[in-house]
Amino acid sequence: xxxxxxxxxxxxxxxxxxxxxxxxxxxxxxxxxxxxxxxxxxxxxxxxxxxxxxxxxxxxxxxxxxxxxxxxxxxxxxxxxxxxxxxxxxxxxxxxxxxxxxxxxxxxxxxxxxxxxxxxxxxxxxxxxxxxxxxxxxxxxxxxxxxxxxxxxxxxxxxxxxxxxxxxxxxxxxxxxxxxxxxxxxxxxxxxxxxxxxxxxxxxxxxxxxxxxxxxxxxxxxxxxxxxxxxxxxxxxxxxxxxxxxxxxxxxxxxxxxxxxxxxx
Length: 265
Description:
Blueprint: E1 11-16, H1 24-37, E2 42-46, H2 52-56, H3 68-73, H4 80-84, E3 86-87, E4 94-97, H5 117-121, E5 129-133, H6 140-149, E6 152-158, H7 161-183, E7 191-198, H8 207-218, H9 231-237, H10 250-263
Parallel strand pairs: 1-5, 1-6, 2-4, 2-5, 6-7
Antiparallel strand pairs: 3-4
Helix pairs in contact: 1-10
């Protein structure tokens, strides 16, 4: 089976959970923005049909249909990520390949090797880091596309039952992917970088939240610090701004900056 190769020094990190509302997009955007602010050439790929990352960074495709769905729908999208990446206004080193609602149509695509198209599109990409904001799907073509493109997985969670369940489901999907690759004699070079727990209310911690954090810690993969909950994050998402510009966002920025130090090579 032919598989395209991209820059061996480029890290491709997928941010993944199989539950919604567990800070997945906040984590993906934060990792990408902080890495770019530190001078890394960073491309954020919005693979989620909800297009939450696309909306937050307030970008639109250069032309109608020139979003990640174009990559997933073409038989040979070699180099397309470079062509479709839109410059962000936040940092000079940050670009984003946008998403759109009709990307969900790609879930029905069962063409041979369709799951390799995203990886193929990264060939020739001018980047040090690719961050993929994944949909909260249980397997399926979109998730398989990310798994085939990525070399690193960062699980996103919140201090909740949904957060724990989303990580557990995601880890099962990753294990199934590795097993299927092993069966066909193909490598699955995926590193599990850990679990980010976001939106944590430090002052009023419920019993359920404490139990959820304990469950995440029991995996041996929980990264510290935990990311605190701050209203500023949701406020700036509505207006397409970066919370790191604001003093109230500093605790969240500092937590994600330490996580970047741990997971980005």
